[in-house]
Write a structure and sequence with these properties.
The chain has helices spanning 2-7, 39-45, 61-74, 97-119, 140-150, 165-173, 189-192, 241-259, and strands at 22-28, 50-55, 81-86, 125-130, 155-160, 185-188, 202-206, 222-227, 235-240, 264-269. The chain is α/β, with parallel strands linked by helices. The protein has two domains: 2-163, Cobalt-precorrin-4 Transmethylase, domain 1; 166-273, Tetrapyrrole methylase, C-terminal domain (Methyltransferase, Cobalt-precorrin-4 Transmethylase, Domain 2, 2-Layer Sandwich), CATH 3.30.950.10. The strands form two sheets. Strands 3-2-4-1-5 form a five-stranded parallel sheet, with helices on both faces. Helix 4 packs across helix 5.
Length: 276
């Protein structure tokens, strides 16, 4: 008896051998250039029966259309279905910010769970096409973890990495993101006012809807800014921050009004932080 117990595995996979288990791909599709999608992503897309596409309202139809165009371009024998999910967005009345995001994620998790259960058969493969890369300022993986922890629907999933807007920014400006031996800090516009530029040589800023770079007063700081990176709408500007911020703010406002949405990323470089 003791020998039998010793031979038993400590962890048992309840779904081992279930060849009909649902499968999900979480696929990074890059920042907007259809040629910046990986071969791995294309191979995964050609296994998919159902694409779950989140829409963000009338003003952001470009983001939904790009996903559809990728499928048309890279799936030569289409047999997939597309399920559109209307994202209701975050409830701005909920405070603090972390609680607002948590409520938003919970609502999304319930919606995704219901669709996976009802729209994806046991023997089928589904996918979420994630802008950029699923690991960087995207909520999809957190939501998938919530669904799994609830235990109401069972599936396997795989993450396919994508090119990020950070890489596209560096390529468009023809720069390296850091000097020799230097570090890079990645933050949001919300965090920029805490003095990050005074503490790091290189700060990448994403999700900045309020031109938070205006709070940086150091005259030595340089900015490398880009919007709609990799697309035919791409705009890039660079220079001393104090000399360039007005041009960036104007370009940003004009483009947002014209296109109905804005997605930008920038690097702030502080030469005074560099070691001699």
């Amino acid at each position: 008896m003791a020998d039998d117990a010793a031979r038993r595995p400590l962890v048992v996979d309840l779904y081992e051998g279930n060849v009909n288990m649902r499968k999900l791909y979480i696929i990074g599709i890059g920042p907007g250039n259809p040629e910046q999608i990986t071969i791995q992503a294309i191979k995964a897309m050609n296994q998919v029966d159902v694409f779950f596409v989140t829409t963000k309202g009338e003003g952001k139809n470009d983001l939904t259309q790009f996903r559809k165009e990728l499928c048309e371009r890279y799936i030569p024998e289409p047999s997939y279905r597309t399920i559109e999910i209307v994202d209701l967005g975050r409830d701005r009345t909920i405070h603090p910010y972390a609680s607002r995001v948590e409520a938003w994620h919970q609502q999304r998790a319930l919606t995704y769970e219901e669709l996976i259960k009802n729209e994806l058969r046991e023997d089928e493969c589904g996918a979420f096409l994630v802008w950029g890369d699923p690991s960087l300022y995207d909520s999809t993986l957190r939501i998938i973890d919530q669904i799994i922890s609830r235990g109401q629907v069972h599936f396997d999933y795989e993450v396919i990495p994508g090119i990020t807007s950070i890489q596209a920014l560096a390529a468009s400006h023809k720069i390296t993101l850091n000097g020799v031996g230097e570090s890079i800090h990645i933050a949001t516009g919300r965090q920029l006012s805490t003095g990050l530029v005074s503490n790091f040589e290189n700060v990448i800023v994403m999700l900045d809807g309020k031109c938070s770079f205006k709070s940086v007063l150091d005259k030595d700081v340089e900015i490398y800014w880009g919007a709609y990176l990799g697309t035919d709408k791409e705009i890039i500007l660079s220079g001393k921050l104090t000399e360039t911020l007005e041009s960036i703010e104007m370009a940003r406002g004009t483009a947002r009004e014209k296109n109905g949405w804005m997605m930008d990323t920038y690097l702030l470089r502080n030469p005074s932080m560099r070691q001699p």
